[in-house]
Amino acid sequence: MTATMDAIVASGLKLAHGAQLALDGVDFTLRRGEIVGLIGPNGAGKSTLLRILAGVLPPTAGQVSYGGRSPRDIGRQQLARAVAWLSQSADSIGDDNGAMRARDIVALGRLPHRRAFASLTAADHAAIGRAMDEADCRQFSDRPLNGLSGGERVRVLLARALAVEAPFLLADEPAAALDPLHQLQVMRLLRAKARAGCGVLVTLHDLALASRFCDRLALLAEGRKLADGSPDAVLDDALAARAFHVRLAHASHRGERYATPWEPVNDRTNAETEGGHD
């Protein structure tokens, strides 16, 4: 099933919290072989969209298909093999699992491939080891999750998602709690996964990382999709002002382009003292 699953396609997604719409008619497609950055201000609906696409949150309206099949047709276990999901926090493992060793947390990523109560196979152990190496967390394999720093914990949870070895990986703010070195390592890893044929969707607040590492950006604001396209197309002055209320500075280094927030749209201090900006 997963070998022929080439895309996740969502159409008309809505999610209501009472009278408030967290998502309002969002269409979105994620294809294998690309890394897509999901960007937008706080409360835009990014995490909500990710959870719906991962199959952990049902929409109020609209539908999601995986290789043309509905979640019901695929089944929970097959869907868990096809779509790996990294939450913003450790909440997805439960409060009672905080004392588990890091390696045992990563091993949870192999559950979709195992029968109930079955022991880990050689293939499972190999996948766990690869995932921990990729996420740079093998060195604290035996430490409990609740004894790790925030950044170390994120790397363990990323390894758990990688251990699924799914054709799609959805990651919610994987770089937010990391130091600069590990931010770069994680983004390079996610881009490499896409180049190897995985479909990667990652929510990001860091526009420099999003514009540098992503093939495509989807911009959400107030539960609606404002733009979907190349980083240059999405991070233009008008859209940045509308969604983030900031002006961006655009630059390139060693052939890679990036954009970063520069000033609020109503702040003319820098423009007056520096003669404006490009």
From TrEMBL:
Q: Which GO terms describe its molecular function?
A: ATP binding
| Gene3D superfamilies named among the record's database cross-references | P-loop containing nucleotide triphosphate hydrolases (3.40.50.300)
What UniProt keywords apply to this chain's record, in alphabetical order?
Answer: ATP-binding, Nucleotide-binding, Translocase, Transport
Q: Which PROSITE patterns match?
A: ABC_TRANSPORTER_1, ABC_TRANSPORTER_2
The record's listing under SMART domains reads:
AAA (SM00382)
Q: Where is this region: Disordered?
A: 259-278
Report whether Nucleotidyltransferase shows up as a keyword of the record.
no
* Domain of life, source organism: Bacteria
Q: What does this protein do?
A: Part of the ABC transporter complex HmuTUV involved in hemin import. Responsible for energy coupling to the transport system.
The entry sums up its family as follows: Belongs to the ABC transporter superfamily.
Q: What is this protein called?
A: ABC transporter ATP-binding protein
Native source organism of the sequence: Camelimonas fluminis
